[in-house]
Amino acid sequence: WLAHIYSQTTKDRAAPKKADEPDIVRWPSLQADVMQAHMVVPSRCANAIFGRAGAHLKQIAVTLGCKVQRAVCKGLNTHLVAITGNCNQCAIVQEIVHGRHMDAIRAEGTEPECHVGV
Questions:
Q1: Are 41 and 81 in contact (CB under 8 A)?
Q2: Whole-model pTM over 0.70
Q3: CB count, 10 Å around CB of 94?
Q4: How far apart are CA 19 and CA 50, in angstroms?
């Protein structure tokens, strides 16, 4: 669902998006110190990670002074998390989300995998 952000055939930045694509992925910032990081989280762990109505995620964003958004990709049963801020802000949010994800997996009674696939 990220495939249509940039159309390889037309090289058009305004390539049409499908209806089920999240609208949180943005073009790079013109500011040198602003970046965007993305994470994919399984839907079954979403409440444990984000809190009710995303309250945990909102609090993290306010505390760090960055922008954190999420979108649901129903076809894949996942949530896309987009973090916009400086490198330190993005790294901290990624660590928090990853830690909560591991806690949610352990709470299910399973042990998290030792590797990360790219």
A1: yes
A2: no
A3: 15
A4: 24
Q: Is residue 78 part of a domain?
A: yes
Q: What are phi and psi of 8, to 5 degrees?
A: -70, -25
Confirm whether 21 is domain-assigned. no
What single letter denotes the amino acid at residue 22?
P
Identity of residue 13: R
Q: What is the DSSP string of 4-38?
A: TSS-TTT--TT----TTS-S---PPPSSTT-EEEE
* pLDDT tens string 82-96: 999 999 999 999 999
**Sequence-separated (6 or more) residues with CB below 8 Å from residue 76:** 1
Q: What is the CATH number of the domain that holds 75?
A: 3.30.1370.10
Q: Is residue 24 part of a domain?
A: no
Place of tokens 């806690």: 103
The residue-averaged pLDDT of 2-22 equals 43
Neighbour-count burial of 10, counting CB atoms closer than 10 A to its CB (0-12 exposed, 13-18 middle, 19+ buried): exposed
Q: Report the alpha-carbon distance of residue 20 to residue 11 in Å, rounded.
A: 21
